[in-house]
């Protein structure tokens, strides 16, 4: 069980209220997509779930447990960012294994898990390469590999495909959908790409200035946007 629940969450930076009052429950295994204009607080909300930022008020619950005071490593989550953040001096194998090393896993187990993940993401022939010897799509796959090797209960993606070209984005979108099907983990995915949101999401959460403007299944938001703002983000104004 790894549902994610935000209760009365607020976040201020230097006196500026960035997350105003968010109550949201993302079900176990749900694929939830956050959309909204630049600066509305999408990344901050993910970072609050991950524990990379601390809440100013409210609480964060994962799998029914209050994790508000817990550090990122103890939350059972993995995060994939827009910039791949791979270690340039480490091979693909070492980059993927990095998450496990920190968890004190045994060498033989590490090797087996890395091979399994590399197989899933078609990285097996590339394990001994360095990041600079990979394409953008391959690098992002390594970043995803490093996240899934730990078998997290919850995945957080912050615009993971926005640095990739259009055709690669379509391919990676299909891979992420497949990943969700095979892992059955809870996913929270930030994007500004409407097609990604509509095709990947079980539920879309539209954020505006630190608040949830509307949340619902893609077809529901498309057919019944609460206002012009939501309609603009879901594409039904055109
Ligand atoms: P989004 O991901 O939706 O574009 P962010 O969550 O990155 O938005 O940012 C929301 C707001 O919070 C922005 O106004 C941003 O400038 C501000 N912000 C984000 N992180 C910090 C920080 N560490 N310190 C101060 N302000 C921040
Ligand atoms: Mg952002």
Automatic annotation (TrEMBL):
Taxonomy, superkingdom: Bacteria
Entry keyword annotation includes ATP-binding: yes
TM region positions: none
Keywords: ATP-binding, Nucleotide-binding, Transport
GO molecular function, one term: ATP binding
Domain ABC transporter per the UniProt entry, residue ranges: 4-234
Cellular-component GO terms for this entry: ATP-binding cassette (ABC) transporter complex, substrate-binding subunit-containing; maltose transport complex
UniProt KW Nucleotide-binding keyword: yes
Family: Belongs to the ABC transporter superfamily.
Protein name per Swiss-Prot or TrEMBL: ABC transporter ATP-binding protein
Organism: Teichococcus rhizosphaerae
Interval of the full protein contained in this chain: 1 to 238 of 367
């Amino acid at each position: 069980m790894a549902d994610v629940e935000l209760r009365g969450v607020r976040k201020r930076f230097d006196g500026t209220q960035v997350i105003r009052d968010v109550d949201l429950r993302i079900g176990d295994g749900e694929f939830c997509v956050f959309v909204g204009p630049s600066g509305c607080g999408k990344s901050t909300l993910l970072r609050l779930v991950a524990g990379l930022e601390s809440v100013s008020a409210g609480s964060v619950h994962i799998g029914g447990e209050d994790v508000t005071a817990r550090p990122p490593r103890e939350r059972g989550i993995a995060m994939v960012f827009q910039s791949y953040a791979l270690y340039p001096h480490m091979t693909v194998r070492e980059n993927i294994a990095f998450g496990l090393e920190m968890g004190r896993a045994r060498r033989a187990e590490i090797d087996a898990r890395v091979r399994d993940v590399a197989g899933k993401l078609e990285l097996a022939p590339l394990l001994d390469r360095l990041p600079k010897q990979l394409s953008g799509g391959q690098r992002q796959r390594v970043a995803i590999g490093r996240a899934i090797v730990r078998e997290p209960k919850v995945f957080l993606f912050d615009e993971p495909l926005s640095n990739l070209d259009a055709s690669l984005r379509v391919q990676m979108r299909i891979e992420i959908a497949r990943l969700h099907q095979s892992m059955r983990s809870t996913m929270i995915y930030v994007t500004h790409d409407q097609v990604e949101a509509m095709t990947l999401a079980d539920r879309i959460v539209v954020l505006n200035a630190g608040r949830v403007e509307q949340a619902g299944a893609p077809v529901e938001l498309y057919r019944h946007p609460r206002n012009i703002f939501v309609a603009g983000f879901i594409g039904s104004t055109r």
